[in-house]
Design goal:
The complex is a heterodimer of chains A (104) and B (172). Chain A contains three helices and no strands. By secondary structure, chain A is an all-alpha fold. Chain A has a domain of 64 residues. Chain B has two domains: 84 residues, NADH-ubiquinone/plastoquinone oxidoreductase chain 6, subunit NuoJ (Four Helix Bundle (Hemerythrin (Met), subunit A), Up-down Bundle), CATH 1.20.120.1200; 49 residues, no CATH class. The chains are: A mainly alpha (104), B mainly alpha (172).
Chain lengths: 104, 172
């Protein structure tokens, strides 16, 4: 075991990102897909913070990117949930397999 | 290996284990709760890195806002006690394979790359510094993105209301 450093944080963030991708591939329910997107966004935030902490400690750019990504993620989640609830009203299901009118 | 390292490894294990459970459990409510613990673990990592403001924002916005929103929408759209349908085993295997390959490639690249740390002195990142920088209008300031994000949040709020509005049937 080593002293935790930049590589450890990058490992966690890459693992979180690919766990989110796995969820996005396997899930077919819109809410769980949204949860996977949240995981992916969090891994990106962790990456920004890790680089800011270990490579550019004399600046605050990574920190501000993280703050703005969190704000945009909140807006995105709110809009996505509004769309999901609207879809549930019209289709009585939030499975992506049932929402395929636009496909044809 | 001192106490700080042990705390880091515990937080990392909490985050990753809960993330895996969150994408693999078949009960959607449990998935939301595991997501909550993942986000708390990430907030703990931010605390461990001495970024208290980001950790507080993470807890307030993600744990207090987004997860609660997700749980409410689960209540609105799922029948109680119903499990998610089983996925095809082929799809699971292929996505796991793709994810492992991508993860391996990424980590290979990361470990081969030598990151050069700067010699510059670290600056403090307490809330006063962050606030001063966020609202300063000079070249290093973030006043313009701040205003743009506030407009975005307003637009998202109005958009949500319009989308989720129940369309009344035409009665007149």
């Amino acid at each position: 075991m080593m002293q935790p450093g930049l590589y450890h944080l990058l490992f966690i963030s890459a693992a979180l990102f690919f766990i989110g991708i796995y969820g996005f591939f396997t899930r077919r329910n819109l809410i769980t897909m949204l949860m996977s997107i949240e995981l992916i966004l969090n891994s990106v935030n962790l990456n920004f913070i890790a680089f800011n902490k270990y490579l550019w400690p004399h600046k605050m750019d990574g920190l501000f990117f993280t703050v703005f990504i969190i704000a945009i993620a909140a807006a995105e989640a709110a809009v996505a949930i509004a769309i999901i609830i609207n879809l549930y009203r019209s289709h009585n299901s939030i499975d992506v397999e049932n929402a395929e009118e636009l496909k044809y | 290996m001192n106490g700080s390292d042990i705390i880091f490894y515990l937080l990392a294990a909490l985050t990753l284990v809960c993330a895996v459970l969150s994408v693999s459990t078949r009960q959607i409510f449990r998935a939301a709760i595991y997501l909550l613990f993942t986000l708390i673990g990430i907030a703990g990592i931010y605390f461990w890195l001495d970024y208290q403001f980001i950790a507080a924002v993470q807890i307030v916005v993600y744990v207090g806002g987004i997860v609660v929103l997700i749980i409410f929408s689960i209540f609105l759209t799922q029948q109680a006690g119903e499990k998610l349908p089983k996925q095809k085993i082929g799809r699971k295997i292929f996505s796991a394979l793709a994810v492992f390959c991508g993860f391996g490639l990424t980590m290979l690249q990361v470990y081969q790359h030598d990151f050069i740390e700067t010699e510059n002195e670290a600056i403090t990142t307490n809330v006063a510094d962050i606030g001063r920088k966020m609202l300063s209008t000079n070249a290093e300031g973030y006043a313009l993105p701040f205003e743009v994000v506030s407009m975005l949040l307003l637009a998202a709020m109005i958009g949500c209301i319009v989308i989720a509005l129940k369309s009344k049937p035409e009665t007149k």
